UniProtKB/TrEMBL annotation:
Single GO term (MF): sepiapterin reductase (NADP+) activity
Origin species: Rivihabitans pingtungensis
Highest taxon in the source lineage: Bacteria
Alphabetized NCBIfam families for the sequence: PRK07023.1
GO cellular component: cytoplasm
Chief location category: cytoplasm
Protein's name in the database: NADP-dependent 3-hydroxy acid dehydrogenase YdfG
One of the protein's GO biological processes: tetrahydrobiopterin biosynthetic process
Amino acid sequence: MIKAIVSGHSRGLGAAIVEALLARQLPVLGLARSALPARAGLSQCALDLADPAALTAWLAGPTLHDWLADASAVWLVNNAGQVQPIAALGEQDPQAIVQAINLNVTAPLLLSNAVLAASPHCVERRLLHVSSGAARHAYPGWSVYCASKAALDHHAQAVAAERHTGVRLVSLAPGVIDTEMQADIRAASLAQFPLRERFDALKANGQLTSPQTCAEHLVAALAHPAFGEVVLTDLRHG
């Protein structure tokens, strides 16, 4: 049995990923501060992924091991993340920097490590970091976000170099999606984010991908036999 784990599952792309996985009859464990309405196949844990102490304590408990006990394979989707702080260096809120790094980097690294440690009996482990084009292109005002997503890309490459048996890890840029993150970007001032007008135009021209469409393509990529052959990928490039 394949079992899936999705971080940041309660809204936006994460919620759509859950729907796409459940449509494939895969049981899902969702990790987020808030919850989706209860439904068959979905288990949920209320957890602040931006709090390393809380996440570490949860990982030390029995929930993850119990969830994976009867799994023959596991799919982990490290989806949770935030774009804030949107500001130039020297104008960023220190607490926002700490929260962004905890959520965008610390949480996926802790979850990836814990899933591998808890699933030696699984014949296959597929791990997917939701990265960003910002990992591979520098944007003024997004230095923290760019750095955090680039960290996921490099983590995936380093793990691939370790050549674990039965482990596939991909860092995937999903494109520009019509979520609350995009609303945050459009709410920033031009002084905070000089390229904001580009994202305003994407929304105005209907060029944002829906979370549902993105999630269907992301889960199809996760399920594909070739998953993991290319470590850094972009859904927009097929």
